[in-house]
Amino acid sequence: MPTKYFNKEIETMSRPEKEALQSERLVKIVKYVYDNVKPYREKMDAIKLKPSDIKGIGDIYKLPYTVKKDLRDNYPFGMMAVKKKDLVRLHASSATTGKLTVAGYTQKDLDVWAECGARSLVMAGASEESIVHIAYGYGLFTGGLGMHYAAEKLGAVSVPVSSGNTARQIQLLQDFGADILCCTPSYAIYLAEQMQLQGIEIGKDIKLKGGLFGAEAWTEEMRNEIESRLHIKARDIYGLSEIAGPGVACDCEFKTGLHFQDDHFYPEIIDPDTLEPLGYDTEGEVVITTLTKEGMPLIRYRTRDIASLSLSPCPCGRTSVKLNKVTGRSDDMLIIRGVNVFPSQIESTLLGFEGVEPHYHINVDRVNNLDTIEIVVEISPSVSIDEVKTLESMKRRLADKIASAISVSAKITLVAPGSVERSEHKAKRVTDFRKLK
Ligand code: DLL
Asked: Which terminus, N or C, of the chain has the lesser number of Cβ atoms within 10 Å?
């Protein structure tokens, strides 16, 4: 069957044409951020770089990097290039401190994002005939609304179920007969398991054909599991709220890497320690420049994701640069059931909680295909380890506090003073038992 595209002209554009387009857009966006975003003007002035020094995509390395701290220091609106009246939506994700990382979008930004999502849906086999079951969370997280508008842009039917309530998800999948599923890969496996437990005949009662899975790192083995359990083709979709949600890159049926929507988002790979740009096929930190964004354009944004880029041709005919599966992060951010969690958020909650000490260890695991997080924390010497009632109440209150800080429920294990291993060097606070490589 010939490959289908959402936007054939762009998706199969020759590399020289694409580079000319990227050059033209980079020159424009650099002038735009210099004129409209004070932190960028300051960064460029500091290194005596004028917008006119950027003559094409080959000059991108001259530009300064942007990091999450820049967003935090300018929270909430200091990085926006437009007035509030021109923004139409805000999204946000966790940051290392209590503050969220905020992203603002204009209507044009949302249109571009929906277009990239629609290109991804087509890669998963969707068409305007499709029913797209969206089990990513709706809200500040970009998963739900991102895929929602993508499905509508394609002209498909979106089913905005959001996350949770698995029994209802399964019921609706049967009743509405969705052919495309969007959720985290771990939830896809969980859904399959629950369907099997209920004796549902996948393939007969469930009509799914394809799915777009992302928001967390996953392996080829996991892809095989999802494909065989749900009888579908599983595609990997990548994105981040600061740039755009799902749809920044996505893989096609040939699985040669995730096609980067590089007419709108320009990727680079750098060495996270020396910050030197690395070439193709070398793993390093993914850095992205938004080429067309109006609301919150970002120049050379350090994503902290570890992956490599490739220019090898894909039999599907798409010509974009490809992102090889993200294998990890260059910071300590954990992704638990698709939710970004920084250990520092847990630490500040523990520090503000009476009766426990800042000696803790975080265990992350995957049980029955769902991520779990356990926080082992020492009680203060003033609390008696024998007072079961007091400990139970502490555990409950702490669990509530942690859940509201990180948006994921955690198991709390209270231990006697002195039992968490001390370190003379950098404390190793997290053990991740999930096998992702
Ligand atoms: O996770 C956007 C998204 C929603 C992508 C739904 C795909 C599907 P954030 O919450 O800002 O946005 O988290 C972004 O999640 O920097 C990666 O570390 C990780 N991530 C996202 N997609 C993938 C993927 C959304 N396909 C952070 N593989 C990113 C590996 C992923 N990691």
From this structure: N
pLDDT in tens, 314-351: 999 999 999 999 988 888 899 998 899 988 889 889 98
Say which residue the tokens 């070398």 belong to.
282
Ligand 1 contact, 250 CB (< 6 A): no
Q: What percent of the chain has pLDDT over 70?
A: 98
Percent of the chain's residues with pLDDT above 90: 83
Mutate to test the pocket of ligand 1, among 138, 340, 406, 408 (most ligand atoms within 8 A of CB): 340
Measuring CA to CA, which residue among 299, 273, 220, 225 is closest to residue 26? 299
What's the pLDDT score for residue 437? Answer: 42
Rounded to the nearest angstrom, the distance between the alpha carbon of 244 and the centre of ligand 1 is 10
**Beta-strand relationship, 210-214 and 131-134:** unpaired
What is residue 423's predicted lDDT score, i.e. its pLDDT? 72
241 lines ligand 1 (CB under 6 A): yes
Q: What is the pLDDT of residues 274-287, one digit of tens each?
A: 999 999 999 999 99
Helix, strand, coil abundance in the chain, percent, nearest 5: 35, 25, 40
Which atom of ligand 1 is nearest to 339's Cα?
Answer: 10
